Amino acid sequence: MPPRTAVFFHAHPDDEALLTAGTMAMLAAEGHRVVLVVATAGERGLSDLEPGDELGMTRLKELYESAAVLGCARVECLGYGDSGLSPSGGIAADRPDNAFIDADSEEAAEKLAAILREERADLVAIYDPAGGYGHPDHVQVHRVGRRAAELAGTPIVLEATVNRDPLVKLLRMAGKVYRFPPEFDPRTFESAYTAGADITHRVNVRRYAKQKRASMAAHASQASGGESDRTLAVMLKVPGPLYRQVFGTEWFVRRGLPPGTRLKHPFDEP
Length: 270
Fold this sequence. Notes:
Helix content: 25-40%
Number of domains: 1
Number of strands: 7
Protein name: LmbE family N-acetylglucosaminyl deacetylase
Pfam family, one: PIG-L
Keywords: Zinc
InterPro entries: GlcNAc_PI_deacetylase-related, LmbE-like_dom_sf
GO molecular function: hydrolase activity, acting on carbon-nitrogen (but not peptide) bonds, in linear amides
């Protein structure tokens, strides 16, 4: 396969580590050009650091460290404000004036499209329509990313997601022996991410588990903060062999393909 260019568009630093790091490392190792773009610096993320410019600068530094581990050729931040989350998980009332969720979608799409054109991108990866678990900035990434691909004429649009079927099954089983905190409703995952039947790409990234784990570890500011264990901290405690099994597949959806399509590489065609 001749070298091609893939742009991965994420909402905040560390999102790439959780959803697409293995695929990014794989493509870079195969000789493709991998570009990482984030909409915000993630300056309102939960951390031991106070929200604001210092946290944003720290998280961008971590983003560059993660990108280097994954073999990215270029990293860009569109410069929008982190919209944050309300206590209920929706749009925060105290978000900044330049919050990504409030950005003009066409204007933001043109910013991303300019990068896609400059890179002559063959592929752009975004999120599914639900924004995964529903973070407002993730939903905006989906809207802006799809429009940017239209403006730039980028032929392949992949929606990074998670197969929710085993996740829902696991949560149902866990609920029988474990009492979840009041603020956590496992039923919300029944409509989060994507049903397995709708997933078109299952990418085996076990060979790149070391890079994916290092990408997660680069985002140290997001491994602490708050009163409970952070997602990244828990993931990084998983032993190596089990880590490769649990995090060894990354999932994507490409709209418009025939029902039942099952592909193994981002650039595969049905």
